[in-house]
Amino acid sequence: MKRFWKDVSIADGEVALDGRPVRTPGRVALRLPTAALAEAVAEEWRAVGERVDPRAMPLTGLANAAIDRIAPAPQGYAETLARYGESDLLCYRAELPPELVERQAAAWDPPLAWAMRRYDAHFKIATGIIHVAQPPATLARLHEAVAALDAWTITGLTPPVTVTGSLVLGLALVEGAMDAESVWHAARIDDDWQVERWGEDELATRTTEAHRAEFDAAVRFLAALRG
What is the DSSP string of 107-165? Predict the structure, then answer.
């Protein structure tokens, strides 16, 4: 789609192009819950060049998802996200070498300890990749934590969880128990170890860059939700 507008404005939380409200793909008004998020989305529309590139408008995409997909059925999405707690990245540790074991413990033990305190939950730790079942009570409490969030926060939580493979890290980010850089570093422990040992892989690097962009957009989205 070519750019057809000159002015981008905000009124009552809705972004408008030349006075006409922007609508989601589902034809619902793009109304944002906070002034900060409305301004951030409006800035993406102001920055559009000759043609619209959705890849350059991640906050608009997240807002569309919140309105069209997640708000109509938030509990279904909460349940999907909560399943990441069944195989959380932080619960699967290396046996060797000792340096990697130490790095994982240093980065992963603190957020697990936080989650145990915060949700009165217990996590089983495994070595290797063989699945270990988490206690039903733990999974129930993690599900309750996600289900208590509103649709907009669930939207912002989704990329950090899916990109990192850790519900615990995602919840720690949303609740302010960890900052974004600490979460990203924790999620990259294994990958960074491989890069140190074997060097960069072009395909893996491109994938990492795409994941980082998705992660960063979600971080900005969540920050704007808080105003």
Answer: HHHHHHHHHHHHHT-----EESSS--PPPHHHHHHHHHHHHTS-HHHHHHHHHHHHHHT
